[in-house]
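Pilot study result, target chain (119 residues):
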Amino acid sequence: QVQLVESGGGLVQTGGSLRLSCAASGRTFSGYKMGWFRQAPGKEREFVSAITWSGGMTSYADSVKGRFTISRVNAKNTGYLQMNSLKPEDTAVYYCAATGSFGSVWSDWGQGTQVTVSS
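Predicted structure:
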């Protein structure tokens, strides 16, 4: 069981950058994966990126590949999503998520942070 709190969202112009942070607390366990999802108005929640506990493997949705970078610092229990070259289509509420120990199910979720990209 992990408690997650996102921060770093805001308003940015097309082409700008933002870095989202996800602070984890509570009873964390070795091996949990961390990921980012987003949900735009009128759309279903979609996968954005994920990273393994060691940071050795990352994955990205095709729509953000090459523009977003996921990372984590386990000593700080914090994950990050660096977003560059932002587009209006990136506008959404961004959620961080975590699995159980070496799990595959996204069982823990933050409350989300709004990212708005103006055109």
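One observation from the pilot: The two ends are 39 Å apart (CA to CA). A full batch analysis is planned for the follow-on phase.
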